[in-house]
Each structure stands twice: as C-alpha cells, then as structure tokens.
C-alpha cells in the first residue's frame, strides 16, 4: 500500500508552522509584552515547522528505502 500518513501530516505542520512563525515576526509587540517578553507565536511556529520537516524527512527516507 502506498499511503504514508507522514506526508500530509508533515505538510500540514510545516505550513501551519510557517504561517505562525511569520505572524510572530510581523505581529504586534504588545502580545510579546503580555507573555513575559517571549514571542510565543514565533517559537511555537518554529517548533511546528521543525516537526513538520522531520515528518517529511522521515517519509522521504522511508520512500527511498523501498
């Protein structure tokens, strides 16, 4: 069977992570001040993007082995 769930999951998390990180970069500074000076949108966007990229990498490696 050729269905690998890691591809759509990785694409979804990568896209959402990139959007959230982009919003964190251009978002309002007042949000960061309310959260102890930490830009939560940027950091969680990066975490989601890294997770999505790792899922895509694992799917690519599994496809190469076949």
According to DSSP, the number of beta strands is: 0
Number of helical segments? 3
As a percent range, the share of helical residues equals: over 70%
Rg is 15 Å
Mean pLDDT score: 91
Q: Give the count of structural domains.
A: 1
Q: Uncertain runs with pLDDT below 50, 5 residues or more?
A: none
Distance between the amino and carboxyl termini: 12 Å
What coarse outline follows from CA principal-axis ratios? rod-shaped
Structural class: mainly alpha
How much of the polypeptide forms β-strand, as a percent range?
under 5%
Can you describe what's shown?
This protein has 66 residues and is mostly helical. The protein has one domain.
Task: Compose a concise summary of this entry.
By secondary structure, the chain is mainly α.
What's the structural blueprint in terms of helices and strands?
Elements: H1 6-26, H2 29-34, H3 40-65
Give keywords.
66 residues; rod-shaped; 3 helices; mainly alpha
